[in-house]
Amino acid sequence: MSAQAVHHTAMTLNDQLPALQILVTFIAAPLVVMFGSLRLAWPIAFAASAISFVIAVMLLSQVIDGSIISYHMGGWAPPLGIEYRVDAANAFVLVLVTAISTLVLPYARVSIAAEVPEKHHALFYTAFLLCLTGLLGVTITGDAFNVFVFLEISSLSTYVLIAQGANRDRRALTASYDYLIMGTIGATFFVIGLGFLYMATGTLNMADIADRIADQGANRTVRMAFAFIVVGIGLKVAMYPLHLWLPNAYTFAPSAITAFLAATATKVAIYVLLRFMFSVFQPSFLFEFYTLDFIILPFAIIAMFLSSFVAIFQTDFKRMLAYSSIAQIGYILLGISLLTETGLTAAIVHLFNHGITKAALFMAVGAYVLRAKGSFYDEIEGLGRRMPWTSAAVVVGGLSLIGVPGTAGFVSKWVLVQGALEKGWWPVALLIVASSLLAVIYVWRVVEVLYMKPTPADSDVREAPMSMLIPIWIAALACIWFGFNAEMTLSAAQAAALSLLVGSAGMMN
Amino acid sequence: MRHHLILRVITKLLVGPIMLFALYVQFHGDYSPGGGFQAGVIMAVAFIIYGIVFSLDHVQRVLPPWLVHKLSALGVLIYAGTGLVSMFTGYAFLDYTALSPDHPVHGQHYGILLVELGVGVTVTGVMVTIYYAFTSRTPIMSDEAW
Predict the structure, then answer these.
(1) What are the sequence ranges of the domains in chain B?
(2) In this predicted complex, what is the ipTM?
(3) Tens digit of pLDDT for each residue in A298-318?
(4) Which residues of A touch B93 (CB under 8 A)?
(5) Could you give the residue ranges of the DSSP H alpha helices within A64-143?
(6) CB under 8 Å to A493, separation ≥6 — which residues?
(7) Cβ <8 Å between B84 and A27
(8) CB neighbours of residue A81 within 10 Å
(9) Which among A34, A141, A153 is the top mutation candidate for probing chain B, defined by the most B β-carbons within 10 Å of its own β-carbon?
(10) What is the pLDDT of residue A1?
């Protein structure tokens, strides 16, 4: 749109969808504060999240055929203005993030009421909405600096949300502080990388940067930018040696927040990594420097084994799942480092499958925290009989975590093994299977605690309320559904992988 | 601070001009250096100085904590609301042309004034909130305030 108002054609609601995707939750956040009512906070948050989900599905349905939607903020055309750019890859992530938040919010109502003091509730839901806005913004924007801004919005509100666990365990404060330090270092590295990119190209629009890098080829500035961006986002992803903030943050955050963050925050960070690796720096750049073979691949494999190994020896269910998350991120990074269509498909589909699996498991942990007042193994002994539905969901989620056929986890690991074999990396394929055996051990420990140990005689634990059980089971059934109907997720992931591997088509597209 | 006569008198003299200067920086920001961020901080300084010299109780009688929270949110709503107005009139989010379609340049002017007003209100709110949070470590909002 130009400044010539006379010939202006009005934009329809459909044209405004990319902006509305972040605006609904963004405006709902201050509204919660303005109304300031305990009773209104949750309904506003849930309504905003549900509307965002509908918008995300509408956007995905428009771009699933490979087309691209470009929205110009403030009417300023890119590369000068901020562009929102929706394609198959980020529409897929938008749907995942909004679906998980819409699933977690009904669950959060009871769980948060039990874990967070009442006077914080309104601000809690404000922070939740801001976090969601940040994650959506990071995903949808086509402007590199805008990514940083939204990353900060989501990170800052995440620190607040994690610190809200302090009512249950004061260590939430130090966990949140650790994450604040690490997250800030990550964001700083990221923005330094952007600075180098801006120095080399003089633009901040991702597609425009891609064009200009392609024109000038790789030089030291561009390589430095790549290194800083990978390390910066690596901290947010919890890529293996940069993962130290994650176990404490996940363990001490309120249960609903852990479920939300585990299923969305690291996944969005992985999306940013993918976007920068493939759309900004182009696949040919990656092939040239073997970064993936020599840095990301070994660390991914170390993460798969070491974190699974640490998970086996945990005595807290929630902490065990946190370590398992680091291992699962290893699988995703392994898929990316294969640099083939199959490998990338595996990474993207695992991003989704692991998201729903961990959402189910962490929500189940929240149910134990609500009823048994803790998630240590000695506190949940024998609860398989007292909380049959929650525990059955744990079993389903656990099977999906291992990758048993018929669950979502199997689909992604199968594609991942295929990808490794395609490249002739059969030792890697064997390592994937071997590390899954470690998952069998840590999942079995939980199942043993839940079902084989006797229930303490004085236990008065009851089954979790319906408002928690239904979201848990929707996630658990999704693990099974996407295990049998892999066609839908696989084809969407494949479309996203293809669009990433082609690299950016530049500004014209 | 009861015995610091000079400090108290000078503060009383200064608070008004500081606020006035904040408004000048706010609304002249599109012609001279300034804008919402700077104006918001200067406006907050007026309250913070008053709080330091007199007491937290005195300043909170003028600007109670609940009001500060609402101010922080109100500014964001003004900003986003400006964008919504452009959306409802069929332009892109925050396209200021929508505010005066016949004179796009005027539209830009109105738009930036409104948006900067939102920024100023929020920055004032947030700066004062930070000051309140540091000076009063015990929770000062009653449960009923929400």
Answers:
(1) 5-139
(2) 0.88
(3) 999 999 999 999 999 999 999
(4) 16, 19, 23, 73-74
(5) 88-115, 121-140
(6) A92, A345, A348, A349, A352
(7) yes
(8) 18
(9) A34
(10) 44
